[in-house]
Automatic annotation (TrEMBL):
Protein name: Transaldolase
Organism: Streptomyces sanyensis
InterPro entries in UniProt: Aldolase_TIM (IPR013785), TAL/FSA (IPR001585)
Region (Disordered): 334-356
Keyword terms: Schiff base
Biased composition (Low complexity): 334-346
């Protein structure tokens, strides 16, 4: 791979359409050349509006929207990325918007919420973001069967990702049988790299161990990547691929600047806040694919973390519960809604009440 050419820094602008420096633009192009799709991870503090999204130099191939965005903003983001979605044949150009996570344990209301969001936005490159609880995995398959793209989030282990891939096959097979265009059904799985690594490092710190810190995220990412490659070598994928399906993409989120260079592999993506992108552009160099054929190293590192006492199974269970609570709290704060009551029938807000 060619080294990054020297560039002069540009002053950051107030709007995301121009906030990306020349160094960052070069890094983004290099990621794309390696088969990595750069997504903008938008936050409430960033000025993301229709004018920004329509900027001719908007440099991202996907957008992760926070909760609380208006339907107009979601549609504007989808429209801004529609050209790349179309020219890539649906491989890139998606916009991830969340479904109300308070229904994460209830398959009926969760599916209704996904349908409502899908109908309200009415754009083929929308992926509805669903937490992968037991109900979420079921709803993932049902959404794909109905032609609704999904961003499966809160996946912290190979066991959970295996469930996601099983549901993906189920849903896409049903979509194929019903005559839907598989190329128009996007499937993304988000691994929150940063949250996983922080949880494992915190456990090591409590044990008084300084060994192997900062390694858990890359190790698990390598295992997830290998699992997907194994599944894509099976007969079911040949059938779906012949029907026009696009390979499901792994999306790395929250990993900080180091993950940009450490997690490079074909049909993956990085969800990057603007600040993290700029930090990575100033301090990280890409050195080619870091995931293909790296499963043994990843597995060995995870075994080492277990020997050190990290108890990865417990860490994953704790993360799934804590991150779901965080998503639910973020939703309530962004929507201004009252805390959800226990039991689906007692809630005052329904799936149609979501702001996106």
């Amino acid at each position: 791979m060619q080294s990054r050419p020297p560039c002069r820094s540009q002053k950051a602008h107030s709007r995301l359409g121009k906030v990306v420096s020349r160094e960052a633009e070069v890094l983004l192009r290099q990621l794309v050349a390696e088969g990595v799709s750069p997504w903008l991870a938008a936050s409430r503090s960033e000025q993301l509006d229709a004018a920004v999204l329509k900027a001719p130099d908007f440099p991202f191939q996907g957008v992760v929207l926070p909760p609380g965005g208006s339907g107009d903003l979601v549609r504007a983001a989808c429209d801004a990325l529609a050209p790349v979605f179309t020219t890539s044949g649906g491989a890139v150009g998606q916009v991830s918007a969340p479904v109300d996570p308070r229904y994460a344990e209830e398959p009926g209301p969760l599916l209704d919420a996904a349908r409502t969001l899908h109908r309200g936005v009415a754009r083929p490159n929308l992926v509805v973001r669903i937490p992968m609880t037991g109900a979420g995995v079921q709803v993932l398959a049902d959404c794909l069967a109905e032609g609704i793209g999904v961003d499966a989030t809160l996946v912290f282990s190979t066991e959970k990702y295996a469930e996601v891939l099983d549901a993906y096959v189920d849903g896409m097979e049903r979509a194929l049988v019903s005559g839907r265009r598989l190329a128009c059904i996007s499937a993304v799985t988000t691994f929150p790299v940063g949250a996983f690594e922080q949880e494992v490092d915190a456990r090591l710190e409590r044990l008084g161990s300084r060994e192997a810190r900062g390694t858990a995220g890359q190790a698990m990412a390598r295992r997830l990547y290998r699992l997907r490659e194994q599944r894509l070598a099976e007969d079911w994928w040949r059938v779906l691929r012949a029907g026009g399906a696009i390979p499901p993409r792994l999306l790395w989120a929250g990993g900080g600047r180091r993950s940009v260079s450490r997690l490079v592999g074909w049909h993956t993506a990085h969800a990057l806040p603007a600040g993290v992108l700029e930090d990575a552009a100033r301090g990280e160099e890409l050195h080619g694919d870091t995931l293909l054929n790296a499963d043994r190293e990843g597995a060995a590192m995870l075994r080492r973390l277990e020997r050190l006492g990290a108890r990865l199974g417990e860490a994953v269970a704790a993360l799934e519960a804590a991150e779901l609570r965080r998503l639910q709290n973020d939703w309530e704060l962004s929507s201004g809604s009252a805390p959800a009551a226990c039991g689906g029938s007692a809630r005052s807000t329904g799936p149609g009440a979501e702001r996106t």
